[in-house]
Amino acid sequence: MGKDEKLSGLGLFPMVLFIVIYLGNGLITKDLKSMPVEVAFLISAVVSLMLNQKVKFSKKVETFCKGGGNSNIILMSLIFILAGVFSQISKEMGAVSSVVNFGLSIFPSKILIPALFIISCFLSLAIGTSVGTIVALTPIAIGLSETSGNSLGLCCAAVLGGAMFGDNLSIISDTTIVATKTQGCEMRDKFKANFKLVLVPAIVSAILFYLNSNPVISLEDNVFYNYSLLKMLPYVLVLIAALAGIDVFIVLFLGIILSAIIGLSLGSFSLRELILATSKGIQGTGKIVIIVILVGGIIELVKLNGGLDYVIYKIKNRVQKKRDAEIWIGILVVLIDICVGNNTIAVVSAGPIAKEIADEYKLEPKIVASILDTFAAGIQGLLPYSNPMLAVLGIATSISAFDIIKYNYYNALMIVVTFIAIFIRSLKNNNSKANI
User: Distance between CA atoms of 351 and 123, rounded to whole angstroms?
Assistant: First the structure.
């Protein structure tokens, strides 16, 4: 590639710089909040605008604005705003405390965290979106943490891990659709292959959530937890509407309106307090919206400077045999995911080149599709700046990404298990050839 290769490699520098500034500082100081993520991204954005002097500065600014104003970025920002309003109003209306107290009155407290994980798995599997699941369940995780004494990071990790379970498996998930289409396989075949990879991580994660639940509450027969079924109705509505496949905007609007009506009817807040709660919910999402816009702009400049093409070129030239091909396909989608912070974009970018590698080394399309989706979903739940993580942090504003990542057993396990599966499949293939 010569000169172009050097330029393309340099195109990745803004994302590498962000990782060094943000994660590096967090690891050294053991305090991720000492370097605000928006500041790290702002520095990365400025540096990205300084690169590639062959392109006019005005063109780079235009490209950055195009990325930051991408329809997906605006859509995500609006979802964050509506989610913040719904979360704040429902909380002040008493919905969160009612849901948590209802759960405490039925289940032993140590079972609640793994139960939250399982519920998140089933919900995300049904609706095919991690963000929608997170929006519905994170407020409950916050209330559960406050009431039961469990770590907020642990509760949010249960929601995030479960959300990525469905995002990875659901037949209506964007990544599933892209993975199967680029590899030319049936969704049901990909689902079967994929399910074998994530079943063990899901079971082990549920057990780990149980073992690490250490509530300060002791449920006794004479303890009574106050809850109102009417106040729980907004969450029931949101869950049912999400399962029915209704657009997330409509779901959130319905949740907001119902929470407002119930709160006003029961005297939980006055009209003025409702307006103030709405304002507070909107303001609480300002930081996340800024981050999303900055990330969108940086990603567009990384593309302009050839960063993604550079990664694809380098990895393709390192593939030697079947096992290597599967491993490098996984690494490829992980690296792109790290660069862009979006598993759908990662699968879209890696899919075509993965198909070329798969055809050359005669890999099964359903296996390749499963590897693409699983690795992309796995790393997504471990990135401090991914959309699902930002969705959690946009609601659970009192914790950092590190507080969640250290408890996100499921995402870490699905990557490890997929690697192991690749090596086991390679050994079986070698043994089969040896017996011929």
Answer: 27
Burial 153-170 (b: 16+ CB within 10 A, else e): bbbbbbbbbbbbbbbbbb
Cα dihedral 241, 243, 249, 255 in deg (nearest 10):
40
Residue of higher predicted confidence among 399 and 100: 399
Q: Give residue for tokens 């590498």.
A: 16
Helix (H, G, I), strand (E, B) or coil at 341: coil
Q: Smallest Cα–Cα separation from 115: which of 212, 206, 225, 242?
A: 206
Give pTM, 2 decimals.
0.69
Those residues whose C-beta lies under 8 Å from the C-beta of residue 106, and which sit 6 or more positions away, are none
Q: What would the two tokens of residue 334 be? A: 């992980």
CA gap 198, 185 in Å, rounded:
19
* Burial degree of 291 (CB within 10 A; 0-12, 13-18, 19+): buried
- The residue written with tokens 């959530």 in the block is 209
Q: How far apart are CA 242 and CA 124, in angstroms?
A: 9
Calculate the alpha carbon distances from 295 to 18, 82, 283 in Å. Answer: 10, 20, 20
**Is 100 within 8 Å of 269 (Cβ atoms)?**
no
The span from the CA of 160 to the CA of 403, in Å, is: 12
What is the spatial distance between Cα 304 and Cα 310, in angstroms, rounded to a whole number? 11
pLDDT tens digit sequence for 110-141: 688 898 898 888 878 867 778 878 887 888 88
Rounded CA separation 221/239 (Å): 30
Amino acid at 32: L
Crossing angle of helices 130-148/95-106, nearest 10°? 70
d(CA 20, CA 40): 9
Residue 356 CA to residue 350 CA, distance in Å, equals 10
pLDDT confidence tier of residue 217, bands split at 50, 70 and 90: low
Contacts of 59 (CB under 8 A, 6+ apart): none
